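>> received
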Amino acid sequence: MQKVYTKIESIVGNVVTVRAKGVRNADLAMVGDSYANVIKLDGDLVSLQVFAGAQGVSTTDEVRFLGRPMMVSFSDHLLGRIFNGAGVPRDNGPALTENMIPIGGPSFNPSKRTLPNKMIRTGIPMIDVFNTLVESQKLPIFSISGEPYNQLLSRIAMQAEVDVIILGGMGLKYDDYMEFRDTLEKGGAMSHTVMFIHTASDPIVECTLVPDMSLAVAEQFALTGKRVLVLLTDMTNFADAQKEMAITMEQVPSNRGYPGDLYSSLASRYEKAVDIDGAGSITILGVTTMPGDDVTHPVPDNTGYITEGQYYLKSGHIEPFGSLSRLKQNVNGKTRNDHRALMDGMIRLYAQYKDSLEKRSMGFMMTEWDDKLLKYGELFETKLMDLSVNIPLESALDLGWEILAECFAPNETGMQTALLKERWPDKSAVA
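>> returned
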């Protein structure tokens, strides 16, 4: 039986306080006609964050505690649907109320996990060839504002070889939300996609619910044997929402005003990535924008300790030197016998190209080798690094050999002779 309280002690911003007993942290409540959740307990003094804001709430409004945490419906009817951060449809479709599951539960039992060992193909060479995405991996995309990270996520959503895509948007501009929706609909990916979207104009508390909504649904799909890819953008907005709520609760701030549990808050979400023994998997890609391109900012700094590498988006492409997939060695030895060697060799030559580029900019005398490197670097950037390039892994590897052959003699590449004899486009050129 739900107990009704009719005396609100205080209203500060979007937080109301009432005296009540038998209430748990994160429980859901109704303040008047608006949903709220418990964010702080101090004896019998309970603080609730009102989803729709406290404007219009009076101290005599009824407060009803529902005795349960936030829940979301799970079924195949979710596919193709768009919801807000509270699980309410924003696509004018019917509300889903069957098979309600709680959000924000613990991560999966480690004894039921299997070692990540399967590749997720995306059709993007800078991922597939040089920093392979591995099933059940957790990776952030480090970026600065203005970079095309949402466009990159859209491409991955359309092209990734997975069963289900779950897109969680936090603090999105309305134009970005519409672009996601239109791109996935036109690309035919909406039929296996679920979207939980919080826009910048929505209540701040809904921003903090989006990752939990997305991951709760992802876990249920994975338990049915589906390979699920969860795309989250932007985790810095999520952390900023946590920061705003911590300030409201008068918590002692930590670095740059963020709450002291920022690491735990991020880790509890990223650790939901899992390859379940005998079932499916959850892979997480989360955009983390870096204010001022500062990788020591608390959000990317904490994220780097949790995740298994990062994709570094800079100047419109995935930067070869800033990016790292720590699990790529688990899979790229199983793709093609030249994958590892070609990946290492091309990045080594690209590093030399950067040195030659600096020499030229400083007016040093250029050698014939420098000229070859400059030609190679330009071809590498336009044919492989450009995010508009969309080719399968095998075609990207073949293209890598063609770029090498166009710029260098076989013995200049540092590749093993046996591999050169097998893969060099012009076999007669190999001694």
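>> The mean pLDDT is 91.
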